[in-house]
Specification:
With 312 residues, the protein is α+β, with helices and mostly antiparallel strands. The chain has 13 helices and 12 strands. Strand 1 (29-35) and strand 2 form a beta hairpin.
Length: 312
Amino acid sequence: MNVLQHLCDTLCMDKSEILRFCSTAPYRYKTYEIPKRNSNKKRTIAQPSTELKFIQRVLVSYLEGKLLVHECAFAYKSGIGIKNNAQIHLKTKYLLKMDFENYFPSITPELFFSILKRTGLEFSELNIDLLRKILFWRAARKGPLRLSIGAPSSPLISNFIMYYFDEKMRLICNEKGIKYTRYADDLIFSTNIKNVLFEIPNIVSSVLENETQGQIKINNSKTVFSSKAHNRHITGVTLTNDNKLSVGRARKRLISSMIHKFLYELLDQDDILKLQGFISYANFIEYDFYQRMCRKYGADNLLRIKKFKLEK
């Protein structure tokens, strides 16, 4: 596979131009921090420059279909999302959720190239060097190269990295009567067999050690067991005890309250935009609830919210 030639043909650039640009690609990032969800810690986002981002997207289009992505992986796939992921686990009694620690930054070029070699994909040394520089970010001048949170190429690379882990976990879970899916760094296991899920955390840690060279680890503080006796949530979607997907009671109350305030012009523009997102989410996840809101407040009013545009 010739990455350099593909970039030359697609970008209409000489090889020397591409090589010169890529020599500084790991430093062409703007970084900033955002709060982590449900935590006082912050997440570092490394946003590639406009030019580098464009090249990364060209590379993604070239690598898609060539890099293996497992059927158990539900994030970053066109036409598949959190609803499909949650639906796999309906009609089960017991649930286990686990989480990777510092997922993207844990992925190094060495891990990426070891998985590439395992799949039989071959690149010249020149193309390997290009992939390393285009796909990975260097936080400090002499720091290690890592996968960045913010690059358009990182989702595909992260899914590919986990292919053999996903396959190993699928085989183990099938033998034990467990359903397994992964949504980015969220691992979800469900079953109707009592107590079998308690075996899984140690198995996951062992398989991770073997399949990712010990680079990716579990955030043990986010390991959660639950059952139908408690609230069950998967990537923000609630699983009800009658085996349906729901946006959840708290969010339903919030949406209804915000629609009411909108009708009385009590929402500012930012809150109206948030309400637009909530309504779209409700329509996607729990259509029955969306229809109830239409009947309660009027379909024309929900349409008004959907069509609202921010005033400049």
